[in-house]
């Protein structure tokens, strides 16, 4: 899959068709801060995703199924 940018917001990925629940579960994974993070502790700070790392994780999840 190709992504428009190296780092994308959760809302941009949702527009590409990713389910919000799945994206939030990736964000909440322990030890996966290289995939998703917030720039600040502010409540309204956007969740950002490294699309290269997200794609690696997505592919790894598909292998076992």
Radius of gyration: 12 Å
> In what order do the strands lie side by side in the largest sheet?
1-3-2
Tell me, rounded to a whole number, the average pLDDT: 92
Q: Whole-Å distance between the termini?
A: 18 Å
Assembly of the depicted chains: single chain
Keywords:
65 residues; alpha+beta; three-stranded antiparallel β-sheet; 3 strands
Give me the secondary-structure topology:
Layout lengths: L6 E3 H6 L4 H9 L7 E3 L8 E4 H13 L2
Antiparallel strand pairs: 1-3, 2-3
In short:
With 65 residues, the protein is of the alpha+beta class.
Describe the fold and architecture:
The structure is a single chain. With 65 residues, this protein is an alpha+beta fold. It has one domain. It has three helices and three strands, in the order E-H-H-E-E-H. The protein has helices spanning 10-15, 20-28, 51-63, and strands at 7-9, 36-38, 47-50.
């Amino acid at each position: 899959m190709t992504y428009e940018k190296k780092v994308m917001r959760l809302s941009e990925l949702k527009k590409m068709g990713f389910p919000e629940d799945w994206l939030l579960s990736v964000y909440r994974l322990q030890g996966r801060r290289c995939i998703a993070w917030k720039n600040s502790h502010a409540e309204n700070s956007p969740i950002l995703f490294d699309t290269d790392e997200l794609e690696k994780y997505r592919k790894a999840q598909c292998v076992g199924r």
